[in-house]
Amino acid sequence: MEIIWQGIKSAFFLIFSGNKEIYEIILLTLKVSGIAVIISMVLGLPIGLLVGLNNFKSKRFVITIINTGMGLPPVAAGLFISLMLWRSGPLGIMGIMYTPSAMIIAQVLIASPIIAGVTLAAVQQINPKLKLQALSLGANRIQVLWILLKEAKLPALAAVMAGFGGVISEVGAVMMVGGNLKGQTRVLTTAIVQNVRMGSFDIAIALVIILLLLTFLVNLFLTLIQQKENKTWYQRFWK
Amino acid sequence: MVSKILEITGLEKKYNSGFSLKVDHLNTEENSILVMIGPNGSGKSTLIKLINLLESPERGSIYFNGKLITGSGVDKIAVRKEMATVFQEPLLFNTSVYNNILMGIQLRGKTISDCKEIFYYLADKLKIKNLLRRNPASLSGGEQQRVALARALVLEPKLLLLDEPLANIDQQSREELRNDLFDILRTAGRSTIYVTHDRNEAMIIADLIAVVNEGRIEQFGLKDEVFRKPASEFIAKFVGIETLIEGIVTEYRDNVCRIKIGSSKNDIYAVSAPVDHGTKVTIAIRPEDVILYNIEMNPESSSAMNSFMGEITEIQDLGIFKKVEIDCGFSLVSFVTRNSIDRLGLETGKKVLSSVKASSVHIFRGSR
After folding, report:
1. CB A233 to CB B133 under 8 A?
2. Rounded CA gap, B148 and B311, in Å?
3. What is the ipTM of this complex?
4. In angstroms, rounded to a whole number, what is the distance separating the alpha carbons of residues B309 and B293?
5. What is the distance in angstroms between the Cα of B41 and the nearest Cα belonging to chain A?
6. Contact between B102 and B76 (Cβ < 8 Å)
7. Does B14 touch chain A (CB under 8 A)?
8. A233 pLDDT band (50/70/90 cuts)?
9. Which residue did the predictor score with more confidence, B292 or A230?
10. Which pTM value belongs to this model?
11. pLDDT at B317
């Protein structure tokens, strides 16, 4: 019990003491996972929409691949990206192994299928006739996708939250491709693992609390967007 | 000059299920209301989707406002933006009623100020002014369909497509909404294609009627023509003709033919085009055209050529009317008001005199 209490006290001390290393770790964590989730949204949302809303021959196979991707073990993603980015690997020429860029790529590989898969399942629940209604109102293809994505706003944002939760808490892949280099690729999860290995449980607990706090704040922000009513048009024009 | 807003020729659409829609010819004029009636699954909704370019035909042509809109190279989005469709389901989006109504306006690149006047008019007329802040999920089925109608009407389309918009609403809301909608359509004078399987709706609002059955247009023409002179027994039944009797033509003189009905002593006279002696025909008489009299009335004192003495076999309450079935050697059906029932003292088993003008009797060749 003492060790937990000590961890909580350390967390507050670390947050408010202005410890440069901690702030660097927090910022890098947010930067890597934030960029990874944004890229995953750009990839996953349209893929989920297109696969979910269209009928094509190999649709079931594609859905199976996406669903498999949702359960992709992070270490497998880490190993795959490592092999790609290794100096002698196909993309070794890029020279980004053990950099935040490599970590972002690994996290994109983990988060994209999650966002695509949840979006896909969400849009398949939408009444297919809504697509016809949008078309008959004069929407073009992109507008139809946007309208239907808004229809699946709640689950789509849940997909983003799931994707963010998946990558910010992930350790295997970022450890493999980032290397946990102090001041360069050390993020909260890799720092926690290292501190546990070193027996510094109080710092590890402090970092876990910070990680949970960050996850909570990001999810709180996304939840507020998710639950927000769209009243702007009405407020602007109806008096 | 009245111009054709829509003209369809040789249109064909086939589905894997085996169902095929084939429309040889159909057209509607500007500011007129074409009602497509027919049973469920007859192809009415498919035709609406083809006209709205939501589906593509295998062959045939659709001309909208004088321009060919089928085939390659057509800007489908631009064509759709000149039409508006209301489907059987309200199909509202998960945003406020206000945003739903203005969604088409926004997609068509118009501003709110372009439609403020009609927006207020429709909100008032369709009784949704107090619902604008609400999410459609919290509305009743009737209210949702009112919003869907407002969303289409606010666009002031060149062609309004209404695909059974009242079909999924409870009886009471349906009647209220029907009155409001028909009032708007009459006032606006908008070119409309209205799909329904309710002949009463067709009778109230239609200028033109197309009867659709099993993917084919069985009859297309002016409302009175279709209701008075159905081309087949199917159409006759569908447009509410209760009396259908088989007979053989025994005489034709002065545009009137005399028809013998089985072993009945009563012959029926009908105004018609020349028919050969001995031709088998089916007689169709609308129930509204059968007039009932007290038996003391002298049949000779009426101008109607058909007068039959009979016995009432059944009286059914239909709300506004009562349906009276009379056995005159053949079964004859008449619709009379509650007031007339009381005035004539009509009841089951009572003798009654019925008459029908020869001009109200329609015949078509062939027997059932």
Report:
1. no
2. 50
3. 0.81
4. 10
5. 17
6. no
7. no
8. very low
9. B292
10. 0.78
11. 87
Does residue B119 contact residue B104 with C-beta atoms inside 8 Å? no
Q: What is residue B182's three-state secondary structure?
A: helix
**A113-144: buried (b, 16+ CB within 10 Å) or exposed (e) per residue?**
bbbbbbbbbbbeebeeebbbbbbbbbbeeebb
Q: Could you tell me if A153 lies within 8 Å of chain B, comparing CB atoms? A: yes
Q: A100-124 vs A141-151: helix axis angle to the nearest 10?
A: 80
Indicate if the pLDDT at residue B258 is higher than 60. Answer: yes
Query: Which candidate from A130, A153, A230 shows the least CB-CB separation from B99?
Result: A230
How far away is chain B from the Cα of A151, in angstroms, using its nearest Cα?
6
Tokens (6 digits) for A204:
């590890």
A130 CB neighbours in chain B (<8 A) are 91, 93
pLDDT of residue B201: 86
Closest residue, chain B, to A144 (C-alpha): B107
- The verdict on B45 touching A (C-beta cutoff 8 Å) is no
Is the pLDDT assigned to residue B260 strictly greater than 50? yes
pLDDT at B79 over 90: yes
Q: Tell me the torsion sign for CA atoms A170, A173, A177, A179.
A: positive
Q: How many residues does chain B have?
A: 368
Residue with tokens 């290794």: A86
How would DSSP label each residue in B23-38? EEEEEEETT-EEEEE-
Q: Say if residues A144 and A132 touch (Cβ distance below 8 Å).
A: no
Percent composition of chain B: helix, strand, coil (DSSP 3-state, to 5)? 30, 35, 35
CA angle, corner B186, sides to B192 and B112, nearest 5?
75
Measured CA to CA, the distance from residue B234 to residue B44 in angstroms comes to 16
Minimum-distance CB partner of B80 among A135, A150, A229: A135
Chain B partners within 8 Å of A138 (Cβ):
77, 80-81, 104, 107-108
Chain B nearest C-alpha distance from A217 (Å)? 26
Between CA B154 and CA B105 the distance in angstroms is 8
Whether the Cβ atoms of residue B136 and residue B118 lie closer than 8 Å to each other = no
Q: Contacts of residue A153 in chain B, CB cutoff 8 Å?
A: 94
